[in-house]
Specification:
Layout (H helix, E strand, L loop, with lengths): L2 H38 L40 E4 L2 E4 L3 H13 L4 E5 L4 H17 L4 H11 L13 E6 H6 L11 H9 L5 E5 L3 H7 L4 E7 L2 H9 L4 H10 L3
Antiparallel strand pairs: 1-2, 3-4, 4-6, 5-6
Helix pairs in contact: 3-4
């Protein structure tokens, strides 16, 4: 083979390799990135295999209803309502909440029930109010929206509308932080509530963990407790799970 033909063969070979690499880049890499993007926008990205799950528990149980930005409820949920200290909630958790507060009193801590059930309309007002405050601090509309969404769920994606979530604080912690702030957990009263919530069927819904914040879509809230039942709460606490991860684990076990 003369040198001219040899050079042509090498050139065509390099062109073929370049075409193959180009095809791989344009076909396989975007698909991979698309998969990553999809996973990053859906909370808990993969169902962790859970073992020794509580018996008789299903992801369809009323006390495990999952509401977040990826699982919205655009219509009001129908349930019997009851009140504790003027705060409305699902009647099925009233006694558990009273027992929780009673336990705190027995340990020497007075509590303040701040919030419970919120309708979708009320959630709209809460979101709008927080965003308005952020705008008043000089944020752009985009910045105000983002900061608001980090601490307040969009209407339809707040589990307060389930009637199963309550904002509960140690009274001394609430007196110092009446607008509810994460630093309330520096008070012994709030620490007690966090440590003993599972004994009464509640979990700290939005933990102080970056990975778990991605799963819930909400920053740490030391005051937000969610009723899931004693068996579920104790399992979630023992295995350091979010409600999202627990529900996904139950589904992975065909429950």
């Amino acid at each position: 083979m003369d040198k001219k033909k040899e050079h042509l063969v090498i050139a065509f070979s390099l062109l073929f390799v370049a075409l193959v690499l180009s095809y791989a880049v344009t076909t396989f890499i975007p698909a991979h990135e698309q998969k990553k993007a999809h996973q990053g926008s859906s909370g808990a990205t993969s169902a962790k295999k859970l073992t020794d799950l509580p018996k008789g528990v299903s992801s369809f149980d009323w006390d495990l209803v999952l509401v977040n930005k990826w699982h919205k409820k655009d219509k009001e949920i129908d349930f019997e309502k009851a009140q504790v200290s003027g705060i409305t909630m699902d009647a099925r958790i009233k006694q558990a909440l009273l027992d929780f507060q009673s336990g705190a009193r027995a340990a020497g801590y007075q509590t303040q029930l701040v919030s419970g059930y919120r309708s979708i309309q009320y959630q709209k007002e809460v979101f709008s109010g927080v965003k308005k405050n952020n705008l008043a601090e000089g944020m752009s509309d985009e910045e105000a929206e983002k900061k608001t969404a980090a601490v307040v769920q969009y209407p339809g994606s707040s589990e307060h509308q389930t009637g199963l979530a309550v904002d509960l604080a140690g009274r001394d912690a609430f007196e110092k932080y009446p607008s509810l702030e994460a630093e309330m957990d520096t008070f012994a009263s709030q620490k007690w509530l966090i440590d003993h919530a599972a004994d009464y069927g509640f979990i700290l819904r939005y933990p102080n963990d970056k990975k778990q914040m991605k799963e819930t879509g909400i920053d740490y809230e030391s005051w937000h407790f969610r009723y899931v039942g004693v068996k579920n709460a104790q399992y979630i606490k023992k295995h350091n799970l979010t409600l999202e991860a627990y529900v996904e684990g139950l589904k992975a076990d065909n429950r």
